[in-house]
């Protein structure tokens, strides 16, 4: 479902070339997956960009990357609450957005306070339903295009390149948002201690996740672009994919798409809210933040105060942030981490001498530096509002770290991201 929520906004930003943006982002993520896989061989129990940079580059830089990653965890429930409310509004247009956003956040917070979790079986059922809906969309989209335009409608280069409307700047801006499709690919590094031949398989798994995501997501948006090529006519940009689904599958597919989008937003929001709450608890327990209220545990072993804090923040930001801004804020922290891992991989495998190991210019220097520059290019093309807000957040982390370490003279406190896995 990853490309569905961002489709309309990415179309607007890229001037109609979302498929191109997703494939470009795939290249950056596949290279970065190589760096993650190689770093997992050095620190197999870490499983975190923060830890790779903390141990492999510099603890102070590691703290700042961890601070940026902290923003990602705070942003996830905001992003999913915004999209969940927007999707419900398409089904219930008579209810104000503020009411739907409040209801979504309250329900999400209630479930987390009650420690209600989906079982593995329910997760499989939800995944099957989502796959079925996307599969039906793909089949109906092919049928619609063939019936209305023949083979020329099904096979076209227009979603990837059109000399009349193609602008590199717009592609770069669209790619900075479309890269959100790949967020989470690095989760495979958490299994580096449990797989056979981790030096090969962790890296291979990460690359394959990125390639599969790029091809499958690219197919979805390619068909959506062919079905509705003029992005300027979308009435609801954030939920444009639902209108594309209605064009090929009538009201039934529209409703089905809306239901799975709400369910996926709720599931991701639940996980994001609890992850942010646990991270606050970890930081409070380790004295990175004040122990009260952040290190307090309530009933059901849930950090109640933190869950409520995240819920209140999620609702407030649903009223002041757009979906586009929330998505780019998530990418702000994520791509800082990606750049850090790529550069750390270059330092550890090319600059740091190890007895009995021969350096390889392409594998140890060219590949990670290419990943670093690729991610830097995407990161620099985030929107100005996202960059300003991200810079303010990073500046606050820099000031906080300077105070805590007495001007960076002592080692910074550790942020434990492992509890979130």
Structural features, described:
The chain has 421 residues and is mostly helical. It has one domain: Amino acid/polyamine transporter I. 73% of the residues lie in helices and 0% in strands. It is built from 15 helices and no strands. It has helices at residues 3-14, 18-42, 49-56, 59-91, 97-113, 120-149, 151-154, 168-178, 198-227, 240-285, 291-294, 304-320, 323-351, 361-380, 384-404.
CATH fold naming? Amino acid/polyamine transporter I
DSSP, total strands: 0
Indicate the overall shape.
globular
- What is the CATH level 1 assignment? Mainly Alpha
Instruction: Report the uncertain regions.
Output: none
Indicate the radius of gyration in whole angstroms: 22 Å
Total helical segments = 15
Could you estimate the helical fraction of the residues in percent?
Answer: over 70%
What gap, in angstroms, lies between the N and C termini?
21 Å
CATH architecture: Up-down Bundle
Average pLDDT over all residues: 90
Taking the sheet with the most strands, its summary is: none
| Count of all domains | 1
Q: Which assembly state applies to the chains in this document? A: single chain
CATH homologous superfamily title: Amino acid/polyamine transporter I
Summarize the structure.
This protein is mostly helical and 421 residues long.
Observed structural traits:
421 residues; mainly alpha; Amino acid/polyamine transporter I; 0% strand
Topology overview:
Blueprint: H1 3-14, H2 18-42, H3 49-56, H4 59-91, H5 97-113, H6 120-149, H7 151-154, H8 168-178, H9 198-227, H10 240-285, H11 291-294, H12 304-320, H13 323-351, H14 361-380, H15 384-404
Helix pairs in contact: 1-8, 1-9, 1-10, 2-8, 2-9, 2-13, 2-14, 3-4, 3-13, 4-5, 4-10, 4-12, 4-13, 4-15, 5-10, 5-12, 6-9, 6-10, 8-14, 10-12, 13-14, 13-15
């Amino acid at each position: 479902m990853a490309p569905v929520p961002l489709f309309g906004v990415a179309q607007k930003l890229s001037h109609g070339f979302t498929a191109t943006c997703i494939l470009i982002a795939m290249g950056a993520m596949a290279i970065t997956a190589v760096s993650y896989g190689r770093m997992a061989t050095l620190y197999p129990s870490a499983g975190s960009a923060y830890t790779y940079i903390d141990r492999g580059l510099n603890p102070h830089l590691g703290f700042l990357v961890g601070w940026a990653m902290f923003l990602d965890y705070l942003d996830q429930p905001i992003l999913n609450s915004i999209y969940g409310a927007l999707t419900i509004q398409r089904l219930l247009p008579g209810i104000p957005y503020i009411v739907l956003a409040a209801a979504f956040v309250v329900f999400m917070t209630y479930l987390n306070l009650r420690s209600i979790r989906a079982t593995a079986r329910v997760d499989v059922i939800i995944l099957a339903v989502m796959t079925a809906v996307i599969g039906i969309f793909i089949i109906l989209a092919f049928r619609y295009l063939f019936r209305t335009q023949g083979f020329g409608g099904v096979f076209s280069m227009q979603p990837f390149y059109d000399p009349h409307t193609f602008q590199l700047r717009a592609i770069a801006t669209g790619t900075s948002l479309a890269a959100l499709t790949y967020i989470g690919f690095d989760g495979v590094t958490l299994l580096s201690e449990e797989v056979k031949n981790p030096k090969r398989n962790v890296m291979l798994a990460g690359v394959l996740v990125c390639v599969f995501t790029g091809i499958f997501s690219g197919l979805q948006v390619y068909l959506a672009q062919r079905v509705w090529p003029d992005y300027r006519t979308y009435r609801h940009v954030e939920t444009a994919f639902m209108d594309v689904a209605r064009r090929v599958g009538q009201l039934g597919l529209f409703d089905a798409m809306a239901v799975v989008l709400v369910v996926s937003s709720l599931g991701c929001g639940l996980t994001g809210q609890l992850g942010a709450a646990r991270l606050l608890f970890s930081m409070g327990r380790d004295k990175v933040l004040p122990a009260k209220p952040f290190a307090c545990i309530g009933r059901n072993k849930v950090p109640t105060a933190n869950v409520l804090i995240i819920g209140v923040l999620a609702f407030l930001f649903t009223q002041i942030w757009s979906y586009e801004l929330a998505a780019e804020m998530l990418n702000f922290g994520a791509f800082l981490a990606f750049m850090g891992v790529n550069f750390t991989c270059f330092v550890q495998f090319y600059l740091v001498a190890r007895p009995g190991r021969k350096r390889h210019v392409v594998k140890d220097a060219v590949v990670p530096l290419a990943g670093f520059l690729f991610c830097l290019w995407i990161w620099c093309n985030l929107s100005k509002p996202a960059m300003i807000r991200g810079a303010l957040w990073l500046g606050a982390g820099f000031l906080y770290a300077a105070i805590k370490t007495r001007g960076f003279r002592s080692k910074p406190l550790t942020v434990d991201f492992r509890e979130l896995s």
